[in-house]
Amino acid sequence: MTRPRNDTLLRALMRQPTDYTPVWLMRQAGRYLPEYNATRARAGDFLTLCKNPDFATEVTLQPLARFGLDAAILFSDILTVPDAMGLGLHFVDGEGPRFERPLREEWEIRDLEAPDPEVHLRYVLDAVAQIRRALDNQVPLIGFCGSPFTLACYMIEGGSSHDFLHVKRMLYERPDLLHHVLDVNARALTAYLNAQIAYGAQAVMIFDTWGGVLSSPAYHACSLAYVQQILAGLTRSHDGHAVPVILFTKGGSNWLEAQAAAGCDALGVDWTIDLGRARERVGAKVALQGNLDPAALFAAPEVIEREAGRILASFGAGHGHVFNLGHGISQHTPPEHVQVLVDAVHTLSRQYHLAP
User: How would CATH label the architecture of 8-353?
Assistant: First the structure.
């Protein structure tokens, strides 16, 4: 397929020269947009929104119609994979995701199987193909999945958690069971991302949302090792073009060097580390994505511009930076503040991409 007319994001992820720093936002299609809320109301509930390719395409494109973003990201949810495993995903207003059948018993864990994405997740693949057609090669489409450990947290806890008691108890009391879940997840996610790539995703991202809650030895054994298993099995080029892979571990800045050596092309970083310091630590191994505190978008426009300028200056001259938030955008963010951020990044970053 033809490379997008604006391929700045793809070049930045591969640390190739760009004229400016590209910008997209985690959770950029979401509840801060009134048009998203209107579409979600028409869908009736969040899962229907995810599982209907027409709705998924509509909301994926909504932020691009408002802002000059440099990428679209597939509208879906990381928990579609365990839902396809038969755990019974549903969402409770004000409480988030819940599974009817969390993994607690050994026989349930031993019976766990990786779903075939062509069969059990076809609605996601159809959405990827439909979004690519709708984008008409304007900007690249990012596909994604959760990390094996992050999915295991939801699958074992049965939903969101503050202390991760069940998954951590399994980690220390029955590590064999946890590693079985992680292996099944890794195989499932490898097939899932490869299917997204085959259907049109031009870059993919692995969200390791809960890797940062682990001890350092457990992070390497239970999170990074299984991310590496995925990275080793991914299709890294399609239709003659490289497919870059982004790894983001929230709260994971202790392990940047290990992440950079894992085999990804870019690392997402949260707002708790200075971006220039992160660049020093990873060197030229990977690009970096990030890392504005999402709360900064509640500030006055001049503060948003100042914070964007500070992060761009921290990364400094050269290529290999994708501007993003350090985590997902808040549902309470004023949309006009997003416009301020996108404009500021596009304007202020050009000075760092001038030829020497």
Answer: Alpha-Beta Barrel (3.20)
